[in-house]
Structure formats: C-alpha cells, structure tokens
Write a structure and sequence with these properties.
With 192 residues, the protein is of the alpha/beta class. It is built from 8 helices and 8 strands; from the N terminus they run E-H-E-E-H-E-E-H-E-H-E-H-H-H-E-H. The strands form 2 sheets. It has a 4-stranded parallel sheet, sandwiched between helices. Strands 3-2-5-4 form a 4-stranded mixed sheet. It binds adenosine-5'-triphosphate (ATP) and the ligand Nc1nc2c(ncn2[C@@H]2O[C@H](COP(=O)(O)O)[C@@H](O)[C@H]2O)c(=O)[nH]1. The site of ligand LQESDW3C has 16 residues, from strand 4, strand 5 and helix 4.
Length: 192
C-alpha cells in the first residue's frame, strides 16, 4: 500500500517557504496543496494556483483541517485539498504558518514531514519582503504582528518533529532539500 505523505514547509514570513515549494514542484514533480486566504493577491499571484482567494463570506463556507488568522487575514487548508493532492502523487507539499504545522503534526503524525526554514539575520528577512515587492505598509503591519514574532523560533510543539533548515544560501538549501526528498521518496517506495 502507498504511504501518502505531505511535506509541510513552515517558518517565518520571508524565510523562503513558497520558493522551496516551487522548487519541489519544478525539480521533483511534488504538487503543492493550494490553501485558501482572505488576503488580497500580490502582483503576479493567480487564483487557484497560488491560493484560492476568498471573501470573508466565501472563506466561511469551506471545510478546514485547520485555519488561522495571520497578520489580520484568514488562511485555511482543507482535507479535500490534501486528498486532491494525494490523488496526483503520494508525496505533496503545503506551506503553512507554525500553528498550522503543529496541527498537521498532531492530526497526521508521521504522514506529515515538517521542514522549518530559518534565516538567522532578521534584517535579511525584511529586505527579502521589500525585494519581493510587498508594500512597505504591509511589511510594517506584518513585522508588528504577534504571528511574525512567534514564527521566528521553532515552536515547542514541533521540536522532535521538524527538520530545521537554514535558508540563507540557496545553493546549500537546494542540496539539503535534494537529500531530504531522496530520503522520503525511498521511505515511500519501501512501503509499497
Ligand atoms: N536563500 C535565499 N536567498 C535570498 N533570497 C531568497 C532565498 N530564498 C528565498 N528568497 C527570496 O525571498 C523572498 C521571500 O521568499 P518566499 O516568498 O518564498 O517566502 P515565504 O516564506 O513564502 O514568505 P511568506 O510567508 O511571507 O509568504 C522571495 O523574493 C524569494 O525569492
Ligand atoms: N495555518 C495556515 N497557514 C497558512 C495557510 N496558507 C498560508 N499560510 C501561511 O500564512 C502566512 C502568510 O502567508 P502569505 O502568503 O500572506 O505571506 C505564511 O506563514 C503562510 O505559510 C493555511 O492554509 N494554513
């Protein structure tokens, strides 16, 4: 029997979660589970590809495995989204804040492979957001949020469950990701 697994990519804002998720899709064909949010799309973001962009009313109609408020906006991931991902591949990825990652660890146990990304230089994180094109007011609000501060450290609920990975040098990050994916693909194969 195939063991379905989900690579949960978590960490502070700007740490590179989305970049890692795109890398896993482009280089290993690992589909990303698309989540729902009430925040407005950033330049270049597409509904159904980057997020399902919702109004507060449409957000409330979905069935979530978990949902959170992050810097004033709502985000949620559904069991249906996970099942749709697993119908394409036994190994999928999802990008979540640390509260969501803790829920996945609790609900899915060993099926959730958690990667916590960190960037030791806090200023570098904020510079990345500006470079990404985030509006200065939005960066200010996000950096002031309780969720931003919380996600700067690996939470106690993920200790022993998450692999921490420093993402300050993309070449090194890629090498570490390649090793991790090969490991989990072998685990998945040996279960078949
Ligand atoms: N190793 C790296 N070195 C320099 N820049 C990077 C690195 N990894 C990612 N970036 C850049 O940092 C910016 C933020 O990355 P990304 O959007 O993937 O972060 P995120 O963790 O998904 O952020 P958020 O939680 O705010 O959505 C992007 O412009 C990305 O290209
Ligand atoms: N717990 C959840 N966190 C989610 C979900 N979708 C995204 N996120 C996280 O929210 C913040 C902000 O995202 P952004 O795209 O506005 O920068 C970030 O940490 C994402 O990882 C979700 O469904 N559940």
């Amino acid at each position: 029997m195939t063991t379905n697994q989900v690579i949960v990519i978590t960490g502070p804002t700007g740490s590179g979660k989305t970049t890692v998720s795109h890398y896993l899709k482009d280089h290993f064909n690992i589909p990303q589970v698309i989540t729902h949010t009430t925040r407005a799309p950033r330049d270049g973001e597409v509904d159904g590809r980057d997020y399902y962009f919702e109004t507060p009313a449409s957000f409330a109609t979905k069935h979530y495995l978990e949902h959170v408020t992050y810097s004033g906006n709502q985000y949620g991931s559904s069991r249906e989204g996970l099942a749709a991902g697993w119908s394409k591949s036994p190994l999928v990825s999802i990008v979540l804040d640390t509260a969501g990652a803790i829920t996945y660890a609790r609900e899915l146990g060993r099926q959730a492979v958690i990667i916590y990304l960190e960037v030791p230089d806090n200023r570098a994180l904020v510079e990345r957001l500006a470079k990404r094109g985030d509006h200065p007011e939005r960066i200010k609000k996000r950096v002031a949020s309780q969720e931003y501060q919380r996600d700067q450290q690996l939470p106690a609920g993920l200790v022993g469950h998450a692999t921490a990975l420093v993402n300050d040098d993309w070449t090194q990050t890629r090498a570490k990701l390649d090793a991790l994916v090969h490991h989990y693909q072998q685990v998945s194969d040996s279960a078949n």
